[in-house]
Amino acid sequence: MTAPKSPAKRRGRPCKPRPLTTSPHLDAFLDMLTAERGAAVNTRLAYERDLTDLGRWLAQRSVALEGAGTEDLRAYLAVQSKDGAPRTVARRLSAMRQFYRFLLSEGRRVDDPASPLDSPKQGRPLPKILTEAEVGAMLSTAEARGGPEGLRLVALLEVLYATGLRVSELVGLPMTAIMRDGRGLLVRGKGGKERMVPLSDPALAALAAYIPSRGHFIPPAAGGEAGHSPFLFPSRSSGEGHLTRQRFAQLLKQLAIDAGIDPEKVSPHVLRHAFATHLLDHGADLRSVQKMLGHADIATTQIYTHVVTERLKKVMHDHHPLARRRVEEPSEG
């Protein structure tokens, strides 16, 4: 009797694991997000991840994702609240609300089980920022590198600090985003909305210095011919055809270390925060900052005024003679 053959090992990259539990309507909902609302790839993935997690949890209770009731959803959120951050729970609730609202609008349900649910209370931490001196140190360090890599890094930094773009907007900029007069960018942001953002003189100079070296990052065409890329920041190795968010974040961390700055303080989004806060520091009006950041609601932009206020309060506390004297005086009684 021969021993049974062991299963043949599959070669190549392992298959991407598929969700264990899916709703027949989940794909339709995700397709609607992309086609009708212009949701970015990362937004779609986040919704898919959150709703698939909910579907798995409901399956353990023998409840289908599209058939959940309000108490099912409330119980799921209670579990999430024990271990998850309030912002994560709020994001999951938002995904649920939009999914069940979609089912209702499509006639797949006669009610919306997520509508009675309350949003979790969450404190809103002030955004981390870099000082103007720290941004200047990073730019000086990048400029000292030279070569195509250094020129690209300076261009990325200058454009990001001049515009406050989201990192996905920055690394995915097409060449056609540069406006005809060369003084600004036409950016397609969240929800497919376009906005114009001006470029500073240093950003324009950095782009002018970088663009002749841009071909260094474009993979060659068949036969060794020079390749082409529609992206302002192309990549030879990225499957997306342009520099990835993750690679740019790595470049920033290393640059921070080289500049003598704690790398934990630095990320693409921190530079976006720095852009907004430094503008307000120098007298920019909130509405203009909102437009440049691409915020739909000015309340989102107002968080930066709190940063400025907190900083001014600290300056007064640290340096005003009366404030210092009150701290030093012993209490009566």
Structural commentary:
- With 333 residues, this protein is mostly helical.
- 52% of the residues lie in helices and 3% in strands.
- It is built from 14 helices and two strands.
- It has a two-stranded antiparallel sheet with strand order 1-2.
- Strand 1 and strand 2 form a beta hairpin.
- The longest helix is centred in the N-terminal third of the chain and has 20 residues.
- The N terminus is likely disordered.
Strand content: under 5%
> Which outline best applies?
globular
Please trace the helix and strand order, writing H or E for each element.
HHHHHHHEEHHHHHHH
* Average of per-residue pLDDT values: 83
Unreliable stretches covering 5 or more consecutive residues: 1-21
Q: Got a strand count? A: 2
Q: What's the helix count?
A: 14
Distance between the amino and carboxyl termini: 96 Å
Largest sheet: spatial strand order:
1-2
Instruction: Please tell me how large the radius of gyration is.
Output: 25 Å
The biggest beta sheet reads:
2 strands, antiparallel
Structural class: mainly alpha
Helical content, roughly?
A: 40-55%
